[in-house]
Write a structure and sequence with these properties.
single chain, about 280 residues, alpha+beta, OB fold (Dihydrolipoamide Acetyltransferase, E2P), five-stranded mixed β-barrel, 5 strands, about 15% strand, rod-shaped
Length: about 280
């Protein structure tokens, strides 16, 4: 059997068609292998390629860690304002008896109180107890002594914490001078004390510089005079004097225990160096 001879044109067309088919098959297989090896999946394998998917496939750059802002410096509380103290009010020298406007602010020592009797008060003609008795009766003396004791017991005699009574000075039997004196009495020497009693003149009844203080004026004038340890010699301050008082007296001063000798005899053992003398006038 004789085979028909193909036309050269037909042969060329068949060859070209076979080449195209083979190329298409080869291209499809290559595409499939490339996709299988691709890291993308899903819609990307299906051929959906977008700019967003491509960007997401890339490794993102590590976000720069934001540094924490520096903590705000804590403001220190302002120091509390120092409270200004109110200045002390200046003392008025007119209201302060211790200040003298002419002393440039220096403290001036107060003058001791030294009372003097009224000008119209009768004064004894002499220093003898009989002269006093002629001026005042025994009843007047006893009345004044009783009233003084009442005021002392009622605590109305003020000036120091304690009054030195005559009973304490005469609580021992007197012999001579300081002989037999208790230690408790000797220890009173040099102490500031307050005493009460009555004036008994020594040498003068006016401008008196020294006098005797006794517990009972009646005893001196009408009864038995006290012994040496029952009297106290009062010494007035320098350049200060007083006149005779019948009224009871309140005295403050420094007490001394010392035997005073005159012509070989002890005339007193107690002295009071007076700082103030006040006449007690009871209503």
């Amino acid at each position: 059997m004789i085979r028909p001879t193909l036309d050269p044109v037909q042969m060329t067309m068949k060859t070209l068609l076979a080449t195209i088919v083979f190329s298409s098959l080869l291209t499809c297989q290559l595409s499939a292998s490339v996709r299988a090896a691709s890291p993308w999946s899903g819609s990307d394998r299906a051929g959906v390629w977008t700019l967003g998917s491509m960007q997401s496939a890339q490794d993102p750059k590590p976000a720069t860690k934001k540094q924490d802002p520096k903590p705000a410096t804590k403001k220190q509380d302002p120091k509390p304002a120092t409270k200004k103290q109110d200045p002390k009010p200046a003392k008025d020298p007119k209201k302060d008896p211790k200040k003298d406007p002419k002393s440039n602010g220096k403290e001036v020592k107060e003058e001791p109180r030294i009372d003097r009797p009224d000008e119209n008060q009768p004064i004894p003609t002499g220093t003898d107890p009989a002269d006093i008795a002629a001026m005042k009766s025994a009843e007047d003396m006893l009345r004044a002594e009783k009233r003084l004791q009442q005021e002392i017991k009622a605590g109305k005699i003020t000036g120091l914490d304690k009054i030195l009574p005559f009973d304490e000075l005469t609580s021992w039997p007197y012999e001579d001078g300081l002989k037999g004196m208790p230690k408790r009495v000797k220890k009173l020497s040099g102490k500031k004390v307050l005493m009460t009693g009555f004036m008994l003149p020594i040498d003068e009844v006016q401008n008196i510089k020294e006098f005797l203080l006794v517990e009972s004026l009646w005893s001196c004038c009408y009864g038995q005079p006290p012994d040496i340890h029952g009297i106290v010699r009062v010494v007035m301050p320098k350049k200060k004097t007083t006149d005779y008082f019948f009224d009871p007296l309140k005295l403050i001063g420094t007490f001394k225990v010392e035997a005073t000798m005159m012509d070989g005899y002890c005339v007193d053992i107690y002295q009071l160096h007076c700082e103030s003398l006040e006449a007690l006038k009871f209503k």
